[in-house]
Every structure is written in structure tokens, then in C-alpha cells.
Amino acid sequence: MSARRPLIVGLGGTIRAGSSTEKALLCSLRRAEAMGAETRLLGGEFLGGLPIFDPRPGDLTAGQRDLVAAIRAADGVIVASPGYHGSISGVIKNALDTLEFTSKDAAPYFSGKPVGTVITAEGGQAGGTTLMALRAIIHALRGWPTPFGAALSGGSGLFDETGSAKDKKDAWQLDTVAEQVVEFAQLRISR
Question: Taking the C-alpha atoms of 122, 123, 126 and 128 in order, what is their torsion angle to the nearest 10 degrees?
């Protein structure tokens, strides 16, 4: 009997439709699908609709419930953020803060899940510092950052009209993140 297909949730993008960050995330999710995973995208439009996280008790919005349910169900996650001023964007941070609603779960936040990281930035320095910041947050949320994190530099010129990475090195980075998340997720669900 074969193990079930892992569910990989992609969380990321910007509120700008067709952002390079969301395109990068979609490239990684396509590679995950090619490896046999099921995928779900929670992209920029979804993220832009989330209210600012409020830790006070109250009713969750439909978007907050969807985010929490998707992360609970995920076997692995890929988080993609633009590098804004040396760190992750506000919409990504807000989504990660919203995971506080899982804090009372038996396995809160990203507990035990592989989490891949994808950063897009205009320059190399923003990519590196943003990658470090995101990996630190994933650790704080009890996730297992994959050994490799993608940091793409070049902004809107990174992708062709089909949404594929123009540069082979960038394509390799996005594939590698997906491959590591799927492989670790498969190990996790097969035990």
C-alpha cells in the first residue's frame, strides 16, 4: 500500500497581481506537483484580504479560518516573500502572525513540518537578510526550515511570459526548495 500524497501549501506573494514573488512560489508548487504532491496556493490576493492580526479573543474571519485550516492540513509549506527593506513583507508577517490561532493545538504553528523559503528581491543584500529573517520566524513557529532557501534577485524580470524562471540557476533554486519540502513531507507521512 502506498502512502497518501503529501499536501504542500504555498503561502506568499504580494497584493500586486502577477508579482514575481507569487510567480516564484508557483514555480515551486509546480515542481511539487510534478513530484506527486497535492498543492494549494494562498497567494497575494488571499493574503491581502486577511485582517491585521488581533490577538484578542474574537471570531475569526473566513480568510483566517481558511489559512489556519490549510496550515493544519499541510504536510509541508513553502513560504515566499519579497524582500522589503531587508525583511519579509507586512502581508507575509501578518499571515504568519495569524497562525497564533493554532497556539493551543496539539501541534501548533508549523510543528514538525518542513517549510521551504523563497525570497525575491531587487538586490542581493535584501534577499540574504530576508531569507535569514524568514528562517528565524519559521524556527520560532516550530517549523523545520529546509536546508536550502531560494533567494532570487532581479525583480520583475525574473520570469518569462509563461511564468517560468528565465535563469537556469533561479529555476534550480525553486525546484530545490520544492524537492526538499516534498521529500521531507513524504518521510513525515510514511512513518
Answer: 120
